[in-house]
Design a protein that fits this description.
CATH superfamily of one domain: ANL, N-terminal domain
Strand content: 15-25%
CATH topology of one domain: Rossmann fold
Helix content: 25-40%
Mean pLDDT: 90
Structural class: alpha/beta
Number of helices: 15
Radius of gyration: 22 Å
Distance between the termini: 35 Å
Largest sheet: 6 strands, mixed
CATH architecture of one domain: 3-Layer(aba) Sandwich
Length: 447
């Protein structure tokens, strides 16, 4: 509730991102947040740093409706930004630094970013396009080094310095739940990158529904408050699949690896006893192929795989090392999770090959997701394991459209359903199997 005392009359409770912190404020004050082998602090510190970041950004002139862009690796700073920026009423823009400079220039201008928070590693990239950026007023440096890098860019502050100078006593406003919270750009479609966006309500509903999907089953892959979470998916990509919000809401210990380096990832998995992650198949392949993976115990590690099709061979290789594996499916437009292939209690006795058969499927839709099969003319078709059609889906957290692109938005929401892929529903009444070449080819940009 806004303020430090009871005030006002009836409060119309809104599903906003700041409400995700209510539980951990009471139950997880002493739980840890870890960044690489450099920084370790508690949730109590996290809450204070979120307040300081809100205060610091307000001091820089950030107001409700402004857009704050973030260039960073998976870090504690990014986690703080996930909360503080939208909780102010500003829009968090997670920049895909893997795009070409021209594409990054386009997305920053298209999103009309007002402030940029940027890791020192990306300063040369920003310097190469700075003169083209029309809306950017302030640049804040993010650095892991005490020695600041040399740059010709005008830097308006260093992250830790502005937090240190800011007040911990910052009052985040009570926002309407339909306030825009985040935006980012997808290249999973043709043409220029397209901006998708999500409201506070959508972020909260996604977090709650996915939490039920991965935590509400008596499964070897269950995500619980006793787990240790580490993302191995860029936080710029669909909010790291929403899991930083979920993990924080649950009060789970969180470990952020920064720049992906095989040795550091394995070191953190072992030293911090990481038990829950998500990544693309290439990262799993990199870790499975590491000689170290053959001599350490990975039996407590549960991993959701997405972003590309998981082969049975790779699934078997991971499972043979003791890793518990399941697949997630979704798209940038869906925030992103549509379904997960969680093992059912009746499958606990399965051998490794049987488990791999389940792991490579896209699984069952999570709570509130409505999935149907439709004909090209929009008629719903039976889920009989034989009929071929178009998958159409809807859920309350799917993007309302593409930013500033009404024509593509209309195409996206044909008939009131999000409409993307032609596939064969060849797993009758259990899960969707990715079989069509078009699906396999385009899934790389999706979860």
């Amino acid at each position: 509730m806004k303020g430090k005392s009871l005030n006002g009359s009836r409060y119309g409770f809104q599903l906003t991102i700041k409400e995700l912190l209510n539980g951990p404020r009471l139950s997880a004050q002493d739980q840890e947040i870890v960044y690489r082998d450099r920084i370790r602090y508690t949730y109590k510190d996290l809450f204070a740093r979120i307040n300081r970041l809100g205060s610091a950004l307000a001091g820089l002139g950030v107001r409700k409706g402004d857009t704050v862009a973030v260039f960073d690796y998976d870090s504690h700073r990014y986690l703080e930004s996930f909360f503080a920026i939208p909780m102010m009423g500003a829009v968090l823009f997670t920049v895909n630094w893997r795009l070409s400079p021209d594409q990054i220039d386009y997305t920053i201008n298209h999103a009309e970013a007002d402030v940029i928070l940027i890791h020192a590693d990306f300063l040369p990239l920003l310097a190469s396009i700075r003169d083209k950026l029309k809306s950017v007023k302030k640049i804040i440096l993010l650095s892991d080094s005490e020695t600041l890098p040399k740059t010709d860019l005008t830097i308006d502050g260093e992250y830790e310095a502005i937090l240190g100078a800011a007040s911990e006593d910052f009052d985040f406003p009570d926002l309407d739940e339909n306030t825009k919270a985040t935006t980012f750009y997808t290249t999973g479609t043709t043409g220029l990158p397209k901006g998708v966006y999500f409201t506070h309500r959508q972020i909260v509903l996604h977090a709650m529904s996915v939490c039920i999907g991965v935590s509400g089953h008596d499964s070897p892959l269950r995500f619980s408050t006793s787990d240790v979470y580490m993302p191995i998916t860029p936080m710029f990509h669909v909010h790291a699949w929403g899991f930083p919000f979920i993990a924080t809401m649950m009060g789970v210990k969180q470990v952020y690896p920064g720049k992906y380096e095989p040795e550091m990832l394995i070191k953190l998995i072992v030293s911090e006893k990481v038990t829950y992650s998500h990544c693309v198949p290439t990262i799993l392949q990199m870790l499975v192929a590491s000689p170290v993976a053959k001599v350490i115990d990975l039996s407590a590690w549960k991993v959701i795989i997405g972003g590309a099709r998981l082969s049975k061979g790779l699934a078997m290789a991971g499972i043979d090392l003791g890793i518990q594996i399941m697949t997630g499916y979704g798209m940038s437009e869906t925030c992103p999770v549509i379904s997960v292939s969680n093992l059912k209690p009746s499958m606990k006795h399965y051998d490794n090959e049987q488990k791999s058969d389940i792991a490579i499927k896209t699984g069952m839709p999570v709570t509130l997701v409505d999935v149907r099969i439709a004909s090209p003319d929009g008629e719903f078709l039976p889920n009989d394991g034989q009929t071929t059609g178009e998958i159409v889906v809807r859920a309350p957290w799917f993007t309302e459209g593409y930013y500033k692109d009404p024509e593509k938005t209309e195409e996206l929401w044909r008939g009131g359903w999000l409409d993307r892929y032609i596939i064969t529903d060849n797993i009758p009444k259990t899960s969707v199997g990715k079989t069509d070449k078009k699906v396999i080819r385009t899934l790389y940009a999706n979860i």
